[in-house]
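Known limitations

Structure tokens in this collection are predictions and should be treated as such. Users comparing against experimental data should check residue numbering before alignment. To illustrate the layout, the record for STAS domain-containing protein is reproduced below. The input appears on top and the generated tokens appear beneath it.
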Amino acid sequence: MPNNLDFTFSDLVAGYVISADPANGRFEMNTSDGRPFVVQLTATTTAEMLRNLGEAYVDATAQLTGMLEHGRLVHVYGLFYPSDSEAGTAFEAKHVLLFGKAAGELKFESPDWWGQQVRRLADFYLDNEFGVGSTTFDYRDYRTDLSMEGAKTSSMRQETDTISRLVYGLATAYLMHGNPRYRDAAVAGANYLVDHLCFVDRSERIAYWYHALVLRADGTEVKVFASEFGDDYDAIPCYEQIYALAGLTQVYRITGDPKLREIIDMTITMFHRYFEDTTSHPDGTPRRGYYSHIDPVTFDPLSPALDDGIRTNRDRKNWNSIGDHIPAYLINLFLTTGEQQYADELESLCDQITEHFPDYGSSPFVQEKFFGDWSPDRAYGQQQDRAIVGHNLKIAWNLTRVNNLRPKAEYVAFAKKIAALMPTVGMDPQRGGWYDMVERHTGPGERFHRLVWHDRKAWWQQEQGILAYQILDAVYGDPLYAKYARESSAFYNAWMLDTQAGGVYFNVLANGNPFLLGGERSKGSHSMAMYHSAELCYLAAVYSGLQRHEQPMDLFFSPGAGAFGGVLRVAPDLLPPKTNKIMQVWVNGHEHADFDAEALTVTLPHSIEPQQVRVRLAPAACTFSADTVDTSGGVARIALAGSLGADQVGVLRGQLDEALDGGAATVVLETDALVYLDPAGIRYLATTKQHRDFRLTVTGARGQVAEELAASELDQELVPTAGR
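Generated tokens:
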């Protein structure tokens, strides 16, 4: 007999307001895939605004009925009462989450959203690992495992990949903000990795990485070489060696330290010498690709020791050994050096992915596990014939990136194929977000691909969904890509952020509530540090902010003496050629004019000391920038340049809000380089002064800008003053 839903239960509904009936306290909404729900408000329904890490709760209960405009994105958590009336199942809202004050406003698309988030993440990890406000960083005090609140556990274990992930995140936070605390912590971590967890064989010109080390109470170290985890046990998995480079490469990107470059190059040599498949098929065609594991003693990927009857890692390839090179270090290494060997490797890997991973005659998901000859391995370990949703999304994201460098129709077709399929089989259209592992095939009579372990949603898979659809939207401009990018961002920012303790949850339930059991209760673990969350903050700011919404973006570098051969490459990612430009550059706080705006390179002044470089990037068609040049003594100086049109007010808002939130009592707008000021800009300043207590001064205004200010009839603080 069929199962009947004849009991109450709570759940989340994510979607868009279609119509509202305030008199009867209800509204209608549609889910992402167009299914309608009637939502009944009650006397105990509460509403709040989305908040970022570090932001306080903002109640919107009293304003809720007036904010239920058509088209507004909302998340509603409530109770279902099956067969409660003739109309069918009733749904009563208990909590409504709003994503902006206006119907079309999404707070996570504001200029400083992702920047604020990465700062809070960096501070969370630094404060908990090294002490609140720490400015020195001894990585002997670092621990892999952190509790949900960020407290260190009693484990004395340090794992290479987790340190590397943290180092990547800290270097990325510096890249976005220029805070020397983040840079110093990242540099200290990179040096610690090289000194304590890297084996350098200079006779062979290779480097490889220990899995972990254990610190004894007497201060001695016990090195752990082969992996001690799951299907990788007692082998050297390729992906662990890959992720050891993630942190080093990002630190090299900001400092140009030649010692780090040497270790990176020697690790890549190790990949080619021991992991790369240089054999051929019987017909003489090269097999290519990288093996997933090698023997820890012989470095042989075909060693019988890799197939012990329990684990089957002999002569295997997988997504991680092929694709993870691309985002973990290769793209960043190419962006930093411009060397064509890395572009060639990116193209080769993407060719292998497009040739071997599609399996659409059999499944809507890619094939991820292979034997050495690229025949499918559908009985490997826990994965068997199953799919990781995030890996499918990761392929679409990275093929789109590399296509901007080495265009191929196959890359575009494959990425778009994944983008079209994944919302139908990997996304949760009821609640938002992306699932984890699913069966690649449906069984007889089954409508849904079965979820393998659970219906939880991991933070890193949400990242892949956001970045995949953001870059697809930025490059191809399809409204469906924009829709899925926003829905993915909404779920992540609504439910993955721990706004109370800090950091990001490892997993949430399908309904968004955090899952807090076992290792998934942690903020630091074998699988989690700061890599994916910081990568998301940075690239979301690039794809959504810089590319899609044309918001200028500052990047910070700290090149040492002689770094990069004197030429700093500042392209933010692999984006379509000539879509961005350098707008302004500062070196050691002084404006610097020796740069190629279109080539995205800065010629560094000769110096025997490290230099602090700030680069403002903007879309090639951008005509306005707002830059906070100083915040000291309660005074924030913001330099405006170009033409401030009505559609650029958000850029000014981002800088002004950041200054006021940081405690500025006086704001000085320097308008020497501003050639046009739209009345919308004046109205924004007037409204902001009405609601926030600060002194506003404008300097250097002339021409139309001065006339607009004089005609504004605002108080005297808005009258332009002479000079600076």
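For this record: The radius of gyration is 27 Å. The CA atoms of residues 425 and 447 lie 10 Å apart. Please report discrepancies through the issue tracker.
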